[in-house]
Design brief:
346 residues; alpha/beta; TIM Barrel; eight-stranded parallel β-barrel; 15 helices
Length: 346
């Protein structure tokens, strides 16, 4: 099992990035860089590439709407070059609030768009000419909106570091998870509950795996949560640190009926709590929404407690299929925490 950490994006990520080299020395395998509607991920990934030597640097995620397939190809190839072949391309559809609200792009056909983007990026990394007659028309024809009609099929000008870069998809809905299991190298689920994950996604993962190409390696899965190793109630109290995150996603990341994370909470069996969290959050009662997040879920999605209990949580994530355990250390010495867990998983 690999170990990874998400780079925080809601503050000054440069400060967090400065700590990544210490985590790398402690045994961290991967760092994930989000962007949401904050700083862009590629800039920070390039910064990390210059500050590290061995760690994998993944986007989690770059959305598939605000950049063309050609731009995503250029970004992936560029990051893989400056990192010396350590890039992971994490993609996702994001959601209507960000895509239509922040980027001003129609949130349409996320599954088809995801498949086409991945296909074009993979072909582009092999220096094939970019041609498409689906959602994307490449080269653009006058019938499809070209002004001059002079576009021509081009291959990437430079030679990529690798002809294949791992592509992960952030997916939650059954259809998108099925697609991920069929075509992606890895899956990035959010707010993951190891013991309940098979109830929500088991059928979708199996259906996608049945259609998976033999050319692809088994699907990698990255998931996890905060980690703190210690005895006593003060350690368990650290779970309150993630209440705002859960409340934000379940309550505020989308309108009623259009919140993927709320749907996941319902699928886990927290239907009553999901409705309450959303009602409170959308009415501005964020603290009350945070208090309504089920403690059972926080405990299952985190690794907080005595060493023996944390080992049990590691095993639970492993049994759920997680191959890259994503950890956010909540301690005075994050590298020491990572080093300890690295020893356990090794």
């Amino acid at each position: 099992m690999k170990l990874s950490t998400p780079l925080m994006y809601d503050g000054n990520p440069r400060t967090a990035a400065d700590q990544v080299s210490a985590l790398e020395r402690a045994g961290l395998d991967t760092v994930w860089v989000a962007e949401a509607y904050g700083f862009d991920a590629p800039t920070l990934m390039g910064y990390l590439a210059a500050k590290t030597e061995t760690i994998e640097i993944g986007s989690a995620i770059i959305n598939i709407y605000s950049r063309t397939p050609g731009a995503i190809l250029q970004t992936a190839a560029g990051l893989d070059n400056v990192s010396g072949g350590r890039a992971i391309l994490g993609l996702g559809a994001s959601g209507p609030q960000v895509i239509e609200g922040f980027h001003g792009v129609p949130y349409a056909k996320p599954l088809a768009r995801t498949a086409e983007v991945i296909d074009l990026v993979r072909r582009g990394l092999k220096r094939e000419r970019l041609e498409s007659e689906g959602i994307f028309t490449l080269p653009l024809t006058k019938e499809a909106g070209a002004v001059t009609g002079l576009g021509k099929a081009l291959k990437i000008l430079t030679h990529p570091e690798r002809s294949e870069i791992p592509i992960y998809i952030a997916a939650l809905g059954p259809k998108s998870v099925e697609q991920t299991a069929e075509i992606a190298d890895g899956w990035i689920p959010h707010l993951f509950h190891p013991e309940k994950s098979h109830l929500v996604w088991g059928d979708a993962l199996a259906a996608g795996a049945a259609k998976r190409s033999a050319d692809l390696a088994p699907l990698e899965i990255t998931a996890g949560g905060i980690v703190a190793i210690g005895e006593g109630p003060e350690t368990k109290a650290l779970l309150d640190f993630v209440r705002p995150l859960f409340a934000l996603y379940v309550g505020g990341m989308g309108a009623k009926g259009k919140n993927f994370y709320n749907d996941v909470a319902v699928s886990y069996g927290y239907e009553k709590e999901a409705a309450e969290i959303q009602d409170l959050y959308l009415s501005g009662k964020k603290k009350e929404a945070e208090a309504a997040v089920p403690l059972e879920w926080l405990e299952a999605a985190s690794l907080v407690g005595p060493a023996s209990y944390v080992k049990e949580r590691i095993a639970a994530f492993g049994e759920a299929g997680v191959t890259n355990l994503s950890l956010t250390p909540i301690s005075d010495d994050p590298p020491a925490t990572i080093a300890q867990i690295k020893e356990w998983v090794s």
